[in-house]
Amino acid sequence: MRYTLERIDPVGRAVVDPSEQSESAALFAVTIEDKYEFYDADGETFHSHTIGGEPDFDTCGGYVGKVIDYRDPRLYDHLAANGVSRESFGSNGFPLLATRSPQLDLVIFGALQLARESFSLDRVALFDLGCTVAEHYDLLDVMFRVTSGGREGASDVLSYHGLDRSSQLLSFARVLHQSVPTEHFVLRQQEGSAFEYADDEFDFSLSVGVVNHVADPRLALEKLIRITRYGCVLALWHTRGPEAKWAINHRGVPSYFFADADLAEMEELGGGRFYVADFVPEFQSSQQASYVNVTAEEIEELGSYHIVYTAHPSLVPGLEPLFA
Amino acid sequence: MRLAWCVGRFVYPRGSTAPLHFMELKEFAVDDGADFAQLLTVRSMRGMRSRNLDARDVEDEFDRWSQGREPRFVAEMTAALLEATNGSTVVELYPGSGVAFECLKFLLERSGAERRVRYVGFGEQSFRLKFEILHGDDEHESAFIEESPAALNTAVSSAEVVVVNWSEAIRHREPPRLTFDELLGAVDRPACAAVRVTEAAVDEERLTVKGCSVNLPARARFMSLLAAAPAHWFYRYVPRYDATFFLPGEADTGLLLTYSAPGIGALEGFEPVGG
User: Fold this and answer.
1) How far apart are the CA of B14 and the nearest CA of chain A, in angstroms?
2) ipTM of model
3) Do B25 and A68 touch (CB under 8 A)?
4) CA-to-CA distance for A198 and B118, rounded, in angstroms?
5) What one-character DSSP code corresponds to residue B25?
6) Helix residue spans in chain B (DSSP H)
7) What pTM value is reported for the model?
8) Using one digit for the tens of pLDDT, what is the confidence trace for A168-218?
9) What are the CA-CA distances from residue A317 to residues A125, A309, A312, A320 (Å)?
């Protein structure tokens, strides 16, 4: 039998329109299936193939893939030839570097290097909230090695603390970094708003979207600010609407979009300010359709900030404050 | 037949067949995610076992987890061949990211034989970096050769044991450059194979869910080849193994596992080709 295939987006075929749901409807017991689906001319399912099977397999592909790409000798060569900068991270030489996570790593690298210089830091304590397989560690390692001419890497510079709720991903982080001394590579399994550390225990912290989908996002962000001495580097999902918003993501997990009022309150509490490196509207993100019960109109109000919270503006030259 | 298709995460209200939401899964998630997760799961178990953390429990968990999985089948055959040949070098034709290699490491370490292998992967250029990075920092030596007819004989002649993983070869978005018969033709030493076959009377071109047209040897033809070969082969057939990976065709499919080496007997679940 010969087949001609046409790829489609099945949204609209038989998808329940969330705007038709009663506000009083108690959703959300959901069933999630990862699969290929093939439809005949009548729109009926002709064939289906379930994929995955391993917990977190979908995140594994991306994050472990990043570790592999960061360890590619050609990446080192690219940065060694072109320097570590917005230009080299935005060039065609290595398109991966222009994506969200490496862009944030570039921001934290810059702030971290300035802090080392300004405050004579010996070893920099970095807290990675929602660390998955600790792929940020690997790109930072490349940047340290390139800029030092190979004299130092992440294992020389960082005291890395990664926290994630997934024991599976943490075990993968461990096996992928077996050569890093464990006293400077600490992993902890915990829910992302339940961590407890002393004030200013870490020099820097990093969270790429994680504070948005923990049990208590405001508390998580507040804690992150409190435990960090010099700078919190964040991808933070946000709504332009007057009030913060909850949505359900593709894993069935509630996600919180911070409003300006939330962030203004954080500035009051912490004494620092938010500085903006970038803003990506949700309709331009690489993973659209991440939220279950959000209309197209609501999507227009959503986006993600690449943002730094710090009381030391000299560490983020060129970044404008979020609130004038 | 014209088909519309998609791949991703379907979210249904519990008990409903009308999807509430669909999110497309990216290629890296679909193509690599499961393999990376499998490989690193085995590596984690190796680590736990080596630290003697309830080693028996870890071994039991590995057995439970790997039961019925193709990488485990391949690893078991390979381990048996290494034992039979007292060899130390393996070449796997189309290893993917090397999940079977990782399973082999577990089995070798569990046996306590202190055997270290040199494992050469031969396959698509797109897997070179993944294979080298994932296996480079390990006690077992590894290397990767990019597929080409010219490199095939060199790769095979460098090893004491050859693994023909046609099942892995046809899982990707592009078909392998070499044909199944070319791979078989190059094997002149102890070898094992994992082959997706069709139960049709003749070889069949089948479309995978990734849109790749691949050749499935006819089970009957392959068995005849094995029966006619001078070496003694053993086989095991797993009918309808991962059958939905292929769009419907002329006949059912399955996974044929087979191996041959001087002095080797039948592993559990295997029987001699030809009876």
Assistant:
1) 5
2) 0.93
3) no
4) 48
5) P
6) 27, 34-50, 55-66, 70-85, 99-111, 128-136, 149-157, 166-169, 180-186, 219-228
7) 0.92
8) 999 999 999 999 999 999 999 999 999 999 999 999 999 998 999 899 999
9) 21, 13, 10, 9
